[in-house]
User: Which sequence fits this backbone?
């Protein structure tokens, strides 16, 4: 098991001081995962990662490739130094990179890569910053798109309601979903981003 994180606040800063041999307590795995069971070997999956949202897509890509699914990746970062897992993901399928400053791959965003190479797919899986998820959701309203959401979480098990998102359907019985226990993966159009 690998834990990949970026130092963002006090929690991850404390974690960064851990040394080999130190112990931490972990509850997990929690929540759902990306649906892959119905993907067939003749189908194409487009996997889109943004920044620190990229690591959860590595195992997804591996599992899809093992099923014979044709996998293509697009990874978006701010700059060349921030690019991660490009080589690892390339083992499972073609991998494009976009950087906002143009220092690696296509200059711009992941959506620019989709346009540039006219990429086709049966299903899109993505994880990354909300603006990127929003752009992908808006770009493919007719497609099957699965989004893995990020949120600050307190309990992680559905008890504290720190991570709720409003549902898109106004007649939904609950009117919200909890990212930690109902997600983190949602079909595009299920919750308001
Ligand atoms: Fe507590 Fe989601 S983090 S309900």
Assistant:
């Amino acid at each position: 098991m690998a834990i990949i994180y970026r130092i963002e606040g006090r929690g991850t800063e404390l974690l960064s001081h851990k040394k080999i041999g130190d112990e931490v307590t972990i509850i997990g795995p929690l929540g759902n995962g990306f649906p892959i069971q119905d993907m067939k070997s003749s189908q194409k999956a487009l996997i889109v990662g943004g920044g620190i949202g990229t690591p959860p897509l590595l195992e997804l890509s591996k599992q899809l490739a093992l099923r014979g699914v044709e996998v293509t990746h697009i990874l978006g970062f701010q700059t060349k130094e921030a690019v991660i897992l490009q080589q690892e993901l390339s083992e499972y399928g073609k991998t494009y990179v976009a950087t906002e400053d143009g220092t690696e791959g296509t200059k711009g965003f992941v959506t620019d890569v989709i346009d540039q190479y006219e990429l086709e797919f049966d299903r899109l899986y993505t994880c990354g910053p909300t603006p990127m998820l929003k752009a992908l959701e808006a770009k493919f309203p007719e497609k099957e798109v699965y989004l893995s959401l990020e949120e600050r979480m307190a309990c992680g098990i559905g008890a504290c309601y720190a991570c709720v998102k409003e549902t898109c359907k106004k007649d939904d019985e609950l009117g919200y979903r909890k990212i930690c226990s109902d997600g983190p993966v949602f079909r595009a159009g299920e919750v308001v981003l």
